[in-house]
Amino acid sequence: MPLRLIFMGTPDFSVPTLLELVAHGHEIAAVYTRAPKPGGRRGLQLQPTPVEEAARKLGVPVLTPKTLKTPEALEEFRAFDADAAVVVAYGMILPQAILDAPKLGCYNLHASLLPRWRGAAPINRAIMEGDAESGVMVMKMDVGLDTGDVAMAERIAIADNMTALDLHDRLSRLGADLMVRAMAALERGGLQLKKQSEDGVTYAAKIEKAEARIDWTRPARAVLRHIHGLSPFPGAWAEHENARVKILRCELAKGSGAPGEVLDDQLTIACGNGAIRIIELQREGKARMQAADFLRGVPVKPPMRFA
């Protein structure tokens, strides 16, 4: 029999999992997501989360509580009489009473190879730190920060040309398939759990704005991974002609020079060791553009610098 589930998620990353669970016949009793935030051109319209928009189209009840720690919130959650809860980037801590409410537990889809990159920004950190691979894992939740027992995992290689958005989209689709398989195993009583290793624990702290400035003194590959790990948001940046420029995509290139030095008229920039060539960028207050389009309006050649 299909499972009766509560789905808890917020951003675009979560939506494929919700849709796949529905497509495979599971009953979604309710969707929990974060409350709408002001948005639109003037910031006056409340913008529902991507998960809420998807749930409304499916005709599923949507709840946006500010907290899950009150007796009222617990009573409401229990009233759905769910077999399990599926949590994908919900953005709110689940207290023990909520975790204990579904008959079969709460299961989280996490975008890293646990115990590496527990926490808020695993996709960004994996790229920024030069990891060779990433992946998704389904774990049974406990009250710790991504410390629950792991049920299933899938891995993918991280190529140097992969941005955070590229990896986000691939893991989102991969994770949706993985969670469907996990729920099928749970349904038939065959979902096996394994404790996480105590070795190799790292934490993916939230990205701070101060991290976004490019340090050209680092080796070229480290600069490339820093740029791609922050693309498209918040965007790694440097200054050119006293204006901030976000660099969104680049590639390794031949050449050497003083860090930040422009080496040719094709936007090749020297790093501490080696160089990168800019492929896509965004000037302050402008739309993102290809390097070739940028160069048509803003000629860049030696001895200019990116500070």
Number of extended strands: 16
pLDDT averaged residue by residue = 96
The fraction of residues assigned to DSSP E strands is 25-35%
Structural class by secondary-structure content: alpha/beta
Largest beta sheet: strand ordering: 5-2-1-6-7-9-10
Radius of gyration: 22 Å
Name the overall outline.
elongated
Distance between the termini: 61 Å
Assembly type: single chain
| Uncertain residue ranges | none
Number of helices: 8
Helix content: 25-40%
Helix and strand sequence: EHEEEHEHEHEEHEEHEHEEEEEH
Task: Describe the largest sheet.
Answer: 7 strands, mixed
Polypeptide structure, described:
It is a single chain. By secondary structure, the chain is α/β, with parallel strands linked by helices. The protein contains eight helices and 16 strands. The protein has helices at 15-23, 50-58, 71-79, 96-100, 122-128, 164-187, 220-229, 291-297, and strands at 4-9, 27-32, 37-39, 45-47, 62-63, 84-88, 106-110, 118-119, 133-140, 150-157, 203-204, 236-240, 243-253, 268-270, 275-283, 288-290. The strands form four sheets. The protein has a seven-stranded mixed sheet. Strands 12, 13, 14, 15 and 16 form a five-stranded antiparallel sheet that branches. A two-stranded antiparallel sheet has the order 3-4. Strand 1 (4-9), helix 1 and strand 2 (27-32) form a beta-alpha-beta unit. 41% of the residues are buried.
